[in-house]
Every structure is written in C-alpha cells, then in structure tokens.
Specification:
Shape: globular
Structural class: mainly alpha
Order of helices and strands: EHEEHEHEHEHHH
Strand content: 5-15%
CATH architecture of one domain: 3-Layer(aba) Sandwich
Helix content: 40-55%
CATH superfamily of one domain: Glycogen Phosphorylase B
Largest sheet: 3 strands, parallel
Radius of gyration: 19 Å
Strand order of the largest sheet: 1-3-2
Length: 172
C-alpha cells in the first residue's frame, strides 16, 4: 500500500464493519471503526477507517483523492460510479459493473475512470493517481463531465413516458 494512502471502506451493511476491520487488522493494517475515531490519539497513522454507519458515503467521496467503487471486483454488479463523479474524483472500479454498464462505459470512454482487474491493478492505478496530481485532476474533471452530461435523467424519462401516454390516449 502506498505510504500516503489511507483507505476508507464503507461496507454495504454496517453490521459487517467489525469483521471488515478485523480482516484488515489480520492482514497487518492499522484499522479502526469510524465510531471509534474519537478514541484514537490525534496524529496517529491509520491505514483503514471502516465506516459503521449509514448515509456517510457521499460526504466521504468529497474528501477522497481517488474513489474506488465497490462491489465490482466480484460479479456483484457494482455500485453507482456517478456518486464520486459529482465531486470530480477519479474513479476506479472492477470488471463487475453489470448494474451500471452504460455509465461505467461512458466514464471509461471519457477518461473519467479506470477499470482494474484485481487488487494489484487497483494498487498500481491508485498509486499513479496519487503521485500524478495533474492526471488525477484531469480524470476527475472527465468524470464530472460525464455526470453533468447525464443530469436530468428522471425528467427525460418522464417526458418520454408522457409522450407515449399522450399518443396512447389519442389512439383510444
């Protein structure tokens, strides 16, 4: 792990947070639950903070230098890659983005994301982005561009449905 990298892990189910922390600790990382941060001495280096509450992820993306979208290194379907894009963050995700295939491809094609195959590729890509701040900023801008280009999806969908509904009413 890069010496300047601190990971913030947000398990889908906060009930799993303690076991996730234990997994990192058993692998030699200095890991702490977010709810226990008040008990960690100021300035103490932490490798991993495990979130054990709901509703914090978008705020944490805002603090990140690089965002990894989870649920994607395994065939789980991934999570929404637009969540970090709104904060102009460079995005990494694995090949298992089947729940967000279209937007993942848009991010890749625009240069706003990198798809990594495994933990080793993640580490290399994250290190590159941490060390090359200009490349990181550029990638984040591309991610934000994709987000902005896809704003208003609900309104567009409702207008499309309304047009079909009006056409249906005229026929009947």
């Amino acid at each position: 792990m890069h010496k300047n990298l601190m990971m913030i892990i947000a398990p889908r189910d906060p009930k799993c947070s303690a076991s996730v922390r234990q997994l990192f600790q058993s692998s030699g990382f200095l890991a702490v639950l977010m709810s226990e941060l008040d008990h960690v001495p100021r300035g103490k280096r932490m490798d991993v903070i495990v979130i054990d509450a709901i509703g914090l992820l978008s705020q944490l993306y805002a603090l990140a230098d690089v965002a990894f979208v989870g649920g994607s290194l395994i065939p789980f379907g991934g999570h929404n890659p637009l969540e970090p894009a709104v904060f102009s963050k460079p995005i990494l995700f694995g090949p298992g983005m089947t729940n967000f295939t279209q937007i993942a491809n848009m991010l890749l094609n625009a240069g706003g994301a990198i798809q990594v195959a495994d933990a080793e590729n993640f580490s290399k890509a994250a290190t590159t982005l941490i060390e090359d701040r200009e490349a990181s900023r550029k990638m984040g801008r591309h991610a934000l561009d994709v987000f902005n280009a896809n704003r208003g999806a609900l309104e567009k969908t409702l207008k499309e449905i309304e047009q079909h509904y009006v056409g249906y009413q005229k026929k009947n």
